[in-house]
TrEMBL record:
This is Alanine--glyoxylate aminotransferase 2, mitochondrial. Belongs to the class-III pyridoxal-phosphate-dependent aminotransferase family. One of its GO terms (molecular function) is pyridoxal phosphate binding. It is an enzyme of class 2 (transferase). It holds the Pfam family Aminotran_3.
Length: 449
């Protein structure tokens, strides 16, 4: 029963495993973009298991591939070869530009980023790794040095030599810059930025240079960036910023790592990978979440040169990485994305959704910003548009809870947890978007009353 589950949770699960809602959901089943609880209530899943269920819960083609592999072979470890891994490596590498052709498979985004850090250090012979404020790159001891958002922020002694630099946030940063953002919304939104906001990119670049010139970053090994910051509340950088930042890092001998854990696999619509939306070519790309539609799986893709640098310096092994089940599922996910035109759907339905939610910004004073790309959208809640003070926690919690009660599950993010995050499975339809916008709007009206 529900109460028994809550009791077990309290007694036997670590207190860091916290539930999202005041009244936690106890889920029973998932079907494509919908989730069902034990009482038969259904919920439109607009957060897809934290941006993970890329092609839909229990997608029949993915399930069929998993069931087929289940009866053949579960596990070998990488000391033996097996076709699912090699087939998957060939398929995945075909989706990346030259020279990003060498793949190492892991089980989670944190592991993938840990490995990318090792590669950056092995290749550059330097030690320091930098990331943005507000970045989320994982929860392992290594990646926690890179993660800089809210209560995930490293509060333990680290000594890992990682460093966070500024965040070029176009909404909340000191230079604003919503006009500089590459978004269809900019044509219909009013800009509240400080005068000169359109010079935001140059200002941020100057600040980035200052960070690179500090002692710690003089021996820079690597620079990690999410193409759009996810956990930080769908934060976008000014147009052109990342390209210049990559050049500056490379001038100092560092390698550039794109963390595609949330932005990859067609979610952003216009491109298969988030880095392509910035017109940059990273040296290392890490990916997880959507890669396995919820099955534990992740990957690091790099150049032959960087892969060799690591192999020369150490032996690296991962028992479950490249597991036959994961690879069979990963292959099916790639096939479904292609066959069902899900990247195209992300583009079309995502643009439709962004414009629909953006209208709420004009209607409600507490909707400060609506931003994002494809099926990765952030709705930043404020006390009022002028001050941009975050809407108090209790009020955001209530809106969040009300949406759930009306059958819509959405995510949260940002330093003050002030941004609603929307990232449904890529099979989402326009009528479902209409439903979600209506529910969200009703929750806002309820809040104003
Ligand atoms: N990178 C990014 C951008 C993420 O959003 C996450 C997870 N939220 C991770 C890395 C870590 O992935 P995992 O939880 O699979 O370790």
């Amino acid at each position: 029963s529900y109460n028994r589950v809550l009791e077990i949770h309290k007694q036997h699960l670590s207190p860091v495993v916290t539930a999202y809602f005041q009244k936690p959901l106890l889920l029973h089943q998932g079907h494509m973009e919908w989730l069902f609880d034990f009482e038969g209530n259904r919920y439109l899943d607009f957060f897809s298991g934290v941006v993970t269920v890329s092609v839909g819960h229990c997608h029949p083609k993915v399930n069929a591939a998993a069931q087929k592999q289940l009866t053949h072979l579960w596990h070998t470890s990488t000391i033996f070869f097996h076709p699912p891994m090699h087939e998957y490596a060939e398929k995945l590498s075909a989706l990346l530009p030259e020279p990003l052709k060498v793949i190492f498979l892991t089980n989670s985004g944190s592991e993938a980023n840990d490995l990318a850090m090792l590669m950056a250090r092995a290749h550059s012979n330097n030690t320091d790794i930098i990331s943005f404020r507000g970045a989320y790159h994982g929860c392992s001891p290594y990646t926690l040095g890179l993660t800089n958002v809210g209560s995930f922020k490293m509060k333990l002694p680290s000594g890992m030599g990682c460093q966070a630099t500024m965040c070029p946030d176009v909404f909340r940063g000191p230079w604003g810059g919503s006009h500089c953002r590459d978004s269809p919304v900019q044509t219909i939104r009013k800009c509240n930025c400080a005068p000169g906001c359109c010079q935001a990119k140059d200002q941020y670049i100057e600040q980035f240079k200052d960070t690179l010139n500090t002692a710690v970053a003089k021996s820079i090994a690597g620079f990690f960036a999410e193409p759009i910051q996810g956990v930080n509340g769908v934060v976008q950088y000014p147009k052109g910023f990342l390209k210049e930042a990559f050049q500056l890092v490379r001038q100092r001998g560092g390698v550039c790592i794109a963390d595609e854990v949330q932005t990859g696999f067609g979610r952003l619509g216009s491109h298969f990978w988030g880095f392509q939306t910035h017109d940059v070519l990273p040296d290392i790309v890490t990916m997880a979440k959507g890669i396995g539609n919820g099955f534990p799986m992740a990957a690091v893709v790099t150049t032959p040169e960087i892969a060799k640098s690591l192999a020369k310096r150490l032996l690296h092994f991962n028992t479950f990485g490249g597991n036959p089940m994961a690879c069979a599922i990963g292959s099916a996910v790639l096939e479904v994305i292609k066959e069902d035109s899900l990247q195209e759907n992300s583009q079309e339905v995502g643009t439709y959704m962004l414009l629909k939610f953006a209208k709420l910004r004009d209607e409600f004073e507490i909707v400060g910003d609506v931003r994002g790309k494809g099926l990765m959208i952030g709705i930043e809640m404020v006390k009022d548009k002028m001050s941009r003070q975050p809407l108090p926690h209790e009020e955001i919690n209530q809106i969040h809870e009300d949406c759930k009660e009306m059958g819509l599950l959405i995510g949260r993010g940002g330093i003050f947890s002030q941004t609603f995050r929307i990232a449904p499975a890529m099979c989402i339809t326009k009528p479902e978007v209409d439903f979600a916008v209506e529910v969200f709007r009703s929750a806002l009206i309820q809040h104003m009353e």
